[in-house]
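Posted in: Structural Biology > Protein-Ligand Complexes

Title: Requesting predicted complex, iron/sulfur cluster in pocket

I'd be grateful if someone could produce the 3D structure tokens for the following input. Sequence and ligand are given below.
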Amino acid sequence: MTELQALAARIGACRLCPRLVDWREEAARNPPARFRGEGYWAKPISGFGDPAAWLLVVGLAPAAHGGNRTGRVFTGDRSGDFLFASLHRTGFANQALSRDLEDGLELTGVFVTAAARCAPPDNRPTREEFATCRPWLEREIALLPNLEVAVALGGLAWDELHRALGTRPVAKFGHGAESAAGGLRLLASYHVSQQNTFTGRLTESMLDGVFSRALTFRAPS
Ligand code: SF4
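-- Reply #1 --
Done. Output follows.
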């Protein structure tokens, strides 16, 4: 077992936030009709991707009926569809499809994770829950020795990413904002939530543009 796999096992057993433990398990007990009869993961989500990644993508938290259902970050919901389609267009993913653990998705050069690992009510962890969960992100980052660039999806992830790297944002969050911390170049994107993608606040070309910008920072190998 690799250190990343061992860490994933520890994350998967975490029950430190009572409110989020209740929420993730309640979602599994009362799924919407379209997911009735499916076995839910209903545990914390660890990051997914290439252990040799140079690019880190940090989302907010798993969706109650997305990652919390399938057991993989950004998998099984519209947000993930939007994200992985962009990673496919920009050369980081072998396919756009992200449906479940058996869908064949493979990432190259990128590791996708989240600031909080349990599905929160209203998609919003509390400040205390973010702080309790932060060590998991810090440990994942420590186990990804080739990281050069990180993309935060949304303002909360932007702030949490900086905190996990031991600093505060020097640039105000906004789509395309750039910063640096912990030896990494940091880029911001609006979150891939349906609230943004359905309204056109975040378009495919805007997200592709952030990953294309990340590619310009990659050190020549
Ligand atoms: S949000 Fe993080 S710290 Fe809280 S229970 Fe889930 S994995 Fe543990």
